[in-house]
Design brief:
Elements (H helix, E strand, L loop, with lengths): L1 H17 L5 H13 L2 H25 L6 H39 L2 H7 L4 H40 L3 H11 L2 H27 L5 H32 L1
Amino acid sequence: MIEFLGLCVQNLVKSVKYVTQVRFSSVLGQAAAISYDSLPISLIIAFIASAVIAIQISKQFLMSGAETYIGGTIAIVMIREIAPGFVALAIGARAGTAISAEIANMQVTSQVDAIKTLKVDPVGYYFAPRIIASAITVPMVVLLAELVGIVGGMFVSEAAIDLHPARYMNSAWLWISTRDIYISLLKASIFGALIALVCATQGYSTHGGAKEVGISTTRAAILSTVYMLIADFLINLIFYIL
């Protein structure tokens, strides 16, 4: 994993050098493939996660007389951790594996070698649009997921313990801080860039045939999840503990 991390860093440096040459149409196309197509599953996951949290805590909070804190608790959990983490996992599973499979297929069919003959850096050409698109658009999906999660928790809390929506939203509004939202969007941007970088690197490292493409895609899903969780831990350590 350390060797692969070094390879990812090298590819990131090459991609940064290629940023000024990236076409807007390429970034727009990758944004649609990565984030827009992942929007439905991301919002569904956010709603279900908030609904489960609301079911788990609503009755316990009611018995202890703390039902006014339900909205704030769900809002903080969704913004700080659930929305950015779950959305990144969903995008990694859907779009990240597609990135890896696409580039791996180009590698094994010699399309990458054809790009090299045109004196174009294949790392910059393939990586930069995907990294830029992910870093910009994944926070947008996370922001929508946070909204859906908070509103979903409100409906479930009302159905479970008859909590008035005004009390729920007032609690959520009092607990939410702009700092948490900024950190959440920063997380989402880092996760998005990390998913694109790791999955593209894994696909670019593929050699062999169709079997290796499948193996590489599976490995990309695993590695992107592991690196994302490590990044999540480090970000939380920096902003909420240190």
